[in-house]
């Protein structure tokens, strides 16, 4: 059992029976009345942001979560299959459990967050950036500028479509930000 004095960003707590991670908090001591703590939490099951106000010193339930490295093996009709990097244990996840799954290629390493008490998968996260080859993009036209405001759609080797600058051509390898699904840079 912990109290609101133990709050820090990234702390995992149980809120209304749901696993949550603290994203932001602020201790407030008004001139009149008792102190309180404003909190923004991310529900680890569905990713929604929740806001709440706790009284200062209020008891909270901490939960134990573990991050484990896995490698993506293949996709089938029911979802995605992964293998633990050290124990070689295989795990199957439903399609809706993996964010930005269309940016994931076979052999890709991911990090899964488990609720330690129940051995239940909460999240499956890709690395912040992935390098992917462009399989189709309209060719650039002479005179196109390299301005960041002009983007054209490019189909990647995984089937995902992202906007790329006009000077990018087919068969080039680019780096994609998996958090925003945006082009980052060309890979040499």
Could you characterize what this model shows?
This protein is mainly β and 188 residues long. The chain has three domains: 2-62, SH3 type barrels; 65-125, OB fold (Dihydrolipoamide Acetyltransferase, E2P) (Beta Barrel), CATH 2.40.50; 130-186, OB fold (Dihydrolipoamide Acetyltransferase, E2P). It has no helices and 16 strands. The chain has strands spanning 2-3, 12-15, 18-28, 36-43, 49-55, 59-62, 65-76, 79-84, 90-93, 109-115, 120-125, 129-137, 151-156, 161-165, 173-177, 182-186. The strands form three sheets. Strands 1-6-2-3-4-5 form a six-stranded antiparallel beta sheet, with no helix packed on it. Strand 10 and strand 11 (120-125) form a beta hairpin. It is flat.
How are the SSEs placed, and which strands pair?
Blueprint: E1 2-3, E2 12-15, E3 18-28, E4 36-43, E5 49-55, E6 59-62, E7 65-76, E8 79-84, E9 90-93, E10 109-115, E11 120-125, E12 129-137, E13 151-156, E14 161-165, E15 173-177, E16 182-186
Antiparallel strand pairs: 1-6, 2-3, 2-6, 3-4, 4-5, 7-8, 7-10, 8-9, 10-11, 12-13, 12-15, 13-14, 15-16
């Amino acid at each position: 059992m912990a109290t609101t004095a133990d709050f820090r960003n990234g702390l995992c707590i149980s809120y209304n029976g749901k696993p949550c991670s603290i994203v932001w908090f602020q201790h407030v001591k008004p001139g009149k009345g008792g102190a309180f703590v404003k909190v923004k939490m991310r529900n680890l099951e569905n990713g929604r942001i929740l806001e709440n106000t706790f009284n200062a010193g209020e008891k909270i339930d901490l939960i134990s979560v573990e991050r484990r490295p896995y490698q993506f093996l293949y996709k089938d009709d029911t979802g995605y299959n992964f293998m633990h990097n050290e124990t070689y244990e295989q795990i199957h996840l439903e399609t809706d459990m993996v964010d930005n799954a269309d940016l994931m290629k076979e052999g890709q390493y991911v990090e899964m967050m488990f609720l330690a008490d129940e051995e239940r998968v909460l999240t499956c996260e890709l690395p912040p950036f992935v390098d992917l080859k462009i399989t189709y993009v309209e060719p650039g036209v002479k005179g196109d500028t390299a301005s960041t405001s002009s983007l054209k759609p490019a189909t990647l080797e995984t089937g995902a479509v992202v906007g790329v600058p006009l000077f990018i051509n087919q068969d080039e390898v680019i780096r994609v930000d998996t958090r925003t699904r945006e082009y980052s840079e060309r890979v040499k």
